Amino acid sequence: MTSTLAPRRKRSTVVRPGDRIFSGLSTSAGILILIVLAGVAAFLTIEGIPGITASPDEVKSGQSFLPYVWPLVYGTLLAAVIALLIAVPVAIGVALFISHYSPRKLGQVLGYLIDLLAAVPSVVYGLWGIGFLAPKMAPIYQWLESNLGFIPFFAGPASATGRTIMTASIVLAVMILPIMTAICREIFLQTPRLHEEAALALGATRWEMARMAIFPYARSGIVSAAMLGLGRALGETLAVAMVLSVSAGTVTANLISSTNPSTIAANIALSFGEASGKTVNALIASGLVLFVITFLVNFAARAVVDRRKDFSGAN
Amino acid sequence: MTTLTPTPESPGNRGAVDVQKELYGGQLPERAPLLVIGAAVVVAAALYLAAGVNLMLAALVVFAISLALPVWSVAVEGRRKATDRLVTVLVTSSFVLAMFPLFSILVTVIGKGTKVLGIDFFTFSMRNVVGEGGGIYHALVGTLIITGAATVISVPIGLFAAIYLVEYSEGNRLSRWIRFLVDVMTGIPSIVAGLFAYALFVLFFGEGVRMGIGGSVALSVLMIPVVVRSTEEMLKLVPNELREASYALGVPKWRTVSKVVLPTALAGIVTGITLAIARVIGETAPLLIIAGATDSVNFNPFDGRMASLPVFAYASQRNPGIPPEFSIDRAWGAALTLLLIVMLLNLIARLVSYFFSPKGER
After folding, report:
1. B284–A37: do the CB atoms touch at under 8 Å?
2. What ipTM was estimated for this complex?
3. Taking 50 as the threshold, does the pLDDT of residue B107 lie above it?
4. Cα dist. A163→A3, A37, A257 in Å?
5. Are B191 and A269 in contact (CB under 8 A)?
């Protein structure tokens, strides 16, 4: 749209001071954003490097950086991936329900309800997770341990409080559901009407229409929604910090016991208050690791969207 | 459509009733879904009321009985329609499943939070309070100051960056990079923003720095991309004819932007900013890192620790003291207050966009 104005600018002879100030302000605001993003990376690196190079007896954990951060990375990825596994099918289902199964008017109201879920602050999710969900999940974990205990994930001993990595993942799944649903819904709604009607006219059932017309069109959008959800889940702090009962340095596939690996973000939130000296730097360095992981995930998600933008509804 | 398989006799030789039966034969009655769901709900309600099974199990029973619909369908209508009905059941129940936590959260927070709400709860701080009593005045003040300062920082930057992207960049390489990185920035974990603010302030104020304004800087990092994206979308919606009409009258570009483009998009921009505020006002992690927690009222964001609602709720739950129940009640009260503020902001955003957007864009 701005391209139509381009010739005008070339011909304009008078450049007023107001114009110069205004365009200068705008341009510098744009550049400032780049600087801020670079600043985030730079300051984390500056403050993080002493933490990475610190010798084991200088930090509270008594470990050098790699053995210290590895269980945290593992916990972060584990919780986020489980959350994603739970949330993706539900999000697609909900989005499909809102966009194609419910009456149109109702769909708008329902969409608003889901958006409401996105607005709930994370500390409220945390309180809900520890005050409501965890006690409710405890008997289920007991059941899983006694009936499916042969699967390593459910080996137990089951946590009596329900504050397990499984519970944390469920809370995370609830938290990332709205954003993923919102993106999927938008893309499903953008599916060309003619594709859908053509499928239905050829005698396809509604599900076959979804499979043949909607999903191929929305595939890259679904992928990017999932990756954005993954980014959220990786970085979520408070809900995990409140719900999970952690024991430092654990790396386990057991999802229902009371000894769980912590996540990077939760570990920072829990230990930052009492930390001092090189321990702070180590925590900042772990934050840098988290930043790099989420940056890569988001970068990949955006790249997927941008690459497929021209021939799909994802933008 | 198994009913349409060719039959040896031509339709003309049969009565109308036969044709109708054949055309509609392989179909469940129109009311079948209602019937099955109704039966499922009745059974579940009976179990819930009579046998006292819990709500989760009752919902599972409803789901299990609903699966009878595709089974019935496979017997009457064939595999394809049965799959369709199965998916309908799954899609609908996934929606119900997603609604579960929303209602559960609302019910739990309202149920547990209203206990402590009262005039005292909003007008007292936690200074020298042990056990019962005390309030969230200090946290409320802190939240308003920190979020207010964050808004003051991010709105001009976000607004001008969006103006650059839409009005000035003309799609050059810099603008493509900004757009891409703003998208990526949306995904920065909130705790990383907090660490950034800490790492920045520690250079000037030394180790262990805690400041309200640091929280504002951290929140700005989270808020700027949201403001840029929403403002950009709104500016793009302004019809080009308006700009061209303004240029044709000899109005310079900066006046066109500030007097024509911005006022046209104002409702949308305000909505976007309100939603951005609603998003960051509930952020806990960065404030935990850089703003810290305190029991006293602090009006100066440049001096020392500053309480905020989310951190207060978190800390009250985490370190409740003895006896714990009063502190945990206060945590729920703070959570409810926070939830109400966020909902209110969302409502304001909707109302602004409903009442003030230019006609025809609703």
Report:
1. no
2. 0.85
3. yes
4. 57, 35, 8
5. yes
